Amino acid sequence: MTTSLTTDRLAGFVEKAPLERYVAPEKPSLVGLSRPELAEALASVGVPASQRKMRAQQIWNWLYARGATGFEQMTSVSKELRAALAEKFTLGRPDIVAEQVSVDGTRKWLLRLPSENPGERPHEVECVYIPETDRGTLCVSSQVGCTLTCSFCHTGTQRLVRNLTPGEIVGQVMLARDRLGDWSARPAAKDAAEAAGAPKEGGRLITNVVMMGMGEPLYNFEAVRDALLIVADNEGIGISKRRITLSTSGVVPNIARAGAEIGVMLAISLHAVRDELRNELVPLNRKYPIKELLDACRNYPGLTNAKRITFEYVMLKGVNDSLADAKTLVKLLKGIPAKINLIPFNPWPGSRYECSEWEQIEKFSEYVFSAGYSSPVRTPRGRDILAACGQLKSATEKLSARERMALRAMAMTD
Ligand code: SAH
Ligand code: SF4
User: Fold this and answer.
1) Is the beta carbon of 249 within 6 A of some atom in ligand 1?
2) CA atoms within 13 A on the CB side of 196
3) What would the pLDDT profile of 359-368 be if each residue is shown by its tens digit?
4) What does the DSSP 8-state code read for residue 72?
5) pTM recorded for the entire structure
6) Which of 128, 269, 315 gets mutated to test ligand 1 (max ligand atoms within 8 A of its CB)?
7) If exposure means fewest CB atoms within 10 Å of the residue's CB, which of 118, 122, 132, 270 is most exposed?
8) Is the pLDDT of residue 399 over 70?
């Protein structure tokens, strides 16, 4: 056999099967339920049909607008109904196993989710909060691991994969609000919030949500859709669709669906301008090559200059960072209202790439900028706590102590 090892290795690895399933706990949480689902939950505890809609709205308000963590807090609901609900349901969010705060204020939560079989190791995902002067962004996970295997991404090396439920996705936003004390707009506490480096937008700490944590959101379409519609609902958590961004590695058939059924901002992990290279970096490209991907972008509903698609481009030294690449990129994106987001590569142990030199990133960025595109370079955040893009990998797949030390060293010396 003469086929190269690289080809063989990549060939079998376009996608992994999600091996794990979600099994609901005996007492499920109401977190993540839509209004009709809340009405069904109310029916199951004997609320008569004529009252269900009104009661569901009340519970919705307690859950998503006020962030109630216990039924006893729901003072506008009768004691009897509260007790009946508490018998059968919880208001649980994913369990926080660890909270880390970076020197730059970034916070990372390691979350524990139930596993398929009792007694097995629980599943873990991460959720990251990034405060900036004018905004606070929450980076949310959509899967435990990822079925895809992008060669520069740590999450892609994780074997264990399971889709998160809507409750586990909405639950990340809710627990971040719990931990940050961010349930009510806070004009009075504004000074304190600002002193803590908090954003000013409406007095909220979390102003933006990005589906850029672990997993490929468009491979968990229904759950991500249902969760984001709850997050965006202005009678609840109320983060507007313009401030929610879904990032995909290019699941072409679901891009139009995302536009029609979710309507949030779109980011595309492009990373390469030639199919040959993109096949290697983002193996899903073999299924949906660049042309099909960009056609889907051109047809994304609601695309205007004010509502542009973000193209993410990880800067890999000597791989995709030449000026010729920048020129081809500009040509490819012609006619698509676009922003280009250059991401310095975040290394992890065993990764075969290096981050481009700073001067090269600047040259690339200047070229793209002079062609009329906004091209911010994403500053790596939370590197000391391994919270940066592509460094997320749950502890379920334990890193060896040596790997951990190597990772820290890399993060600290950058
Ligand atoms: N699966 C989705 C969303 C999560 S990844 C996607 O791929 O779009 C969020 C972003 O981080 C993507 O653009 C991804 O390509 C990028 N990324 C992954 N690993 C990285 C690394 N090691 N350094 C920098 N960016 C990385
Ligand atoms: Fe999955 Fe995105 Fe990582 Fe690719 S970059 S392996 S799609 S999480």
Assistant:
1) yes
2) 17
3) 999 999 999 9
4) G
5) 0.89
6) 269
7) 118
8) no
